[in-house]
Amino acid sequence: MKAVLIVFAAAALVATSAPAQPAAPSAPGASRDCFRMSQLRGHKRVDARTLNIETGSGAIYRWEMSGACLAGSSSSDPLVMSPSSGSDLICRPIDLDLKVMHGPILSPCIIKSFTKLTPAEVAALPPKFKP
Prior knowledge:
By secondary structure, the chain is α+β, with helices and mostly antiparallel strands. Helices cover 17% and strands 36% of the residues.
C-alpha cells in the first residue's frame, strides 16, 4: 500500500512541477481585439463575403462571412446589427447579429471571422475598399 501511495505522490509531484503547456494558438483570423458596436463608423463591401469596417478609433477590421450574404448589396446598403450577448462589446464573431438591408428585405449574415488589419494592410487597401 505504501508503494502505491509513493507512486501516486511522485506522479502528482511530476505533474505539478512540469512546465505549463503554451496556450493553443487561436484560429486563423481570430482576434481578441474588442471594439464596441457603438464605435462603428463606416463600412465598405469588398465582395459577396467580405466587409471592411472602421471603428471610432480609426481601426479597420475585415469581416469574413460564411456565405455570400452580401451578394447584390452595395456599401450604401444599411447594416442592421444587434449584439447577441447583451453587451455592445464585440470580441468574437458570435457576439454580433448582422443583417444587410436590400431595399425592404433583410438578409442575415453569419460572420465567420473578423480580423483587425495592420497599418501596412490598411495602407495597401485600394481607396474603394477603405471605409
